[in-house]
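[Automated response] Your request has been received and processed.

Submitted sequence:
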Amino acid sequence: MLSLTSFAQTSTYFAELEQWHDARIAALKQPNGWLNLEGLFWLKNGVNQFGSASENEVVYNNAQFPKHLGDFVYDNGKVFWKNTNNEKITIKNKAGAVVKNDGALNLLTETEGEYTCEWKHFVWVVIKREDKVGVRFRNLKAKTLVEFKGIERFPVEQKWRIKAKVIPQDQNPLMIMNVLGQNTAQKHGGQLVFEIEGKTYRLDAIDEGGVRLFVTFADATSGKTTYGSGRFIELEKPDEQGYTYIDFNKAYNPPCAFTEFATCPLPPAQNRLTIAIPSGEKKYGHH
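Generated structure:
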């Protein structure tokens, strides 16, 4: 029988997990969430005509969209926007202020999303992935957003909150491949060493700065009850003794589970666990 203290701790833990999950769902629904993406268009050098007509270089197939909204001009590492005579977009900075576009405003900035382009309920930003430059395009009234009903999860179990030793690694950077087949160098956050049912397992973590580590992993549930390409998890950086906790109840689907227009990192070979982790989010969608 649980003591009153144990029951209180369990109730607090479950409540915290529910708050985390509610925040996760709310973030997915935000204008910058993953549910409203309807395009990822890679640009070629020169003029890229943009609209719903098939003769454009960049085609967004939607009857609500103009046949030719305007042009992306990709030249010498810069991207400019050129309006047509009939249509004009709005460009805003991160503070939400409208920015004047004189045809010389470079939309490809070092900080992704420095400028947001808008036309009615459609918004987009210019992004860069290694040597590829493209347009991440959103429909704020997307069917995938409007019809979203939530994400199935495994039952919360405290046994999946596991203490781990963080072992610093000489291997730096940590190479991570994304769904485009591009390898990117990430700062190694250390190797997480932990036990499940008396057996030792390891996961390599990425240090993205701040106070948390990031892990992309797969396990024996991947492609069955959980998303095939693996899941993500975030955890606090180690304490003074070098320990932290991996809470698999907070394992969540990557953006690619919700949209084909994301460029998700994949688990490195050493992060593909042989054990099943029936904890956290179950698979969603068919991407």
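Summary generated for your ticket: The longest helix spans residues 4-29. The radius of gyration is 22 Å.
If you did not submit this request, please reply to this message.
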